[in-house]
Design brief:
By secondary structure, the chain is an alpha/beta fold. The chain folds into 2 domains: 95 residues, Gyrase A, domain 2; 99 residues, 2-Layer Sandwich (Alpha-Beta Plaits), CATH 3.30.70. Helix content is 31%, strand content 13%. It has 7 helices and 8 strands. The protein has a 6-stranded mixed beta sheet with strand order 4-5-3-2-1-7. It has a two-stranded parallel sheet with strand order 6-8. It is globular, with a radius of gyration of 18 Å.
Length: 216
């Protein structure tokens, strides 16, 4: 019997899912093929055949810059990854988008418990404790800039599941409503994709909140 996340992934693929994030997934003869969604149809892609190759593919942008946020919309192009089964596919996707399949499994089981941004900020210690002082207006601007899915960097392809605070208010009205709805394709293509869910603000966003407060 397959592990739960493998079964979940197999079910999504069988339902007609075409990809995840910036990755196109196709299946033929039991073989899974992955490429950047912008590279579909190209015949000059560098071929890889191990799920571990996803580690290096996901590490840098096309410009050679390190990608600290793996769900940022800056995955490099020019590669083709062939995988023999769902187990290898899961391993590769966990390297491309760490933790996102596990979060999806919890969400599908109706057990996902998002943490409000204020709660995340208020539990910070040390140099990041000051981040909790960011005003609501600052949150609106920061999240609207840092978490947007399209229109360049910074950005993130995750669907935001957390609220600003205990009132369940959206953290930013500068983002379209679709940014808070799964499984909307956050690349803007409108395709059937596996959603990248964000159940809690990341460390990078916390660091940016600190910068906002310090600058004021």
């Amino acid at each position: 019997m397959r592990p739960p996340v493998e079964r979940l992934l197999a079910d999504w693929i069988a339902s007609g899912t075409r990809g995840i994030g910036q990755i196109r997934i196709t299946q033929s003869g039991g073989i899974f093929s992955l490429c950047h969604r912008e590279d579909e149809g190209r015949s000059d892609l560098a071929v890889h055949r191990s799920p571990n190759d996803a580690i290096e593919i996901a590490k840098y942008t096309d410009a050679g810059e390190y990608r600290p946020l793996k769900t940022a919309p800056n995955l490099r192009r020019g590669w083709w990854l062939e995988l023999p089964d769902v187990e290898a596919l899961q391993r590769a996707l966990d390297f491309f988008y760490p933790g996102r399949l596990a979060a999806l499994a919890v969400w599908e089981a109706n057990r996902l418990a998002p943490t409000p941004l204020r709660a995340t900020l208020e539990r910070q210690t040390g140099m990041y404790r000051v981040a909790a002082k960011i005003p609501d207006g600052g949150i609106d601007q920061l999240v609207g800039r840092f978490c947007r899915s399209q229109d360049g960097e910074p950005g993130c392809l995750r669907t935001i599941m957390w609220a600003r605070d205990g009132t369940k208010a959206r953290p930013s009205l500068r983002l379209p409503l679709d940014k808070y709805i799964a499984p909307v394709d956050q690349t803007g293509r409108g395709e059937n994709v596996i959603p990248l869910l964000c159940q809690e603000a990341c460390n990078l966003l916390v660091a940016e909140a600190r910068k906002v407060v310090k600058s004021e």
